[in-house]
Amino acid sequence: MGLKEYRKYGLIGRNIEIVEAKNKSLVGLKGKVVDETKNTLIIETKDREKSVLKEQVKLLINFKKEKIKADGKIFVGRPEERIKK
User: Fold this and answer.
1) What's the sign of the alpha-carbon dihedral 68, 81, 38, 48?
2) What is the mean pLDDT of residues 5-16?
């Protein structure tokens, strides 16, 4: 399955890691996505929940047994709107 097909899936419940970011302090942040809005991901880490702008990060996402590296920009938009694209 290509990366474009993955974007139609929601990220809530997925384990992710930020591998690149405009804000360098976010690089290496790992956790589970607990909420998603049009422009942000809420990531639950061991200590806290962190809000991250999708368009400013590159993610390593666990999809079943695969790890996919993706630019957060492809996930900008409401999850229900991405399904239609």
Assistant:
1) negative
2) 78
Which residue in 10, 5, 18, 8 sits closest to 55, CA to CA? 18
Reply yes or no on whether the pLDDT at 44 is more than 70. yes
- Give pLDDT, residue 81: 66
Residue 50 contacts residue 41 (beta carbons within 8 Å):
no
* CATH level 3 topology of 3-84: SH3 type barrels. (2.30.30)
Find the largest Cα–Cα distance for the chain: 36
Give me the amino acid identity at 82.
Answer: R
Do the beta carbons of residue 70 and residue 58 sit within 8 Å? Answer: yes
Distances, alpha carbon 32 to alpha carbons 2, 16, 61, 79, 85, in Å? 22, 6, 10, 17, 25
For 7, which DSSP code? T
- Angle (CA) 59 61 66, round 5°: 140
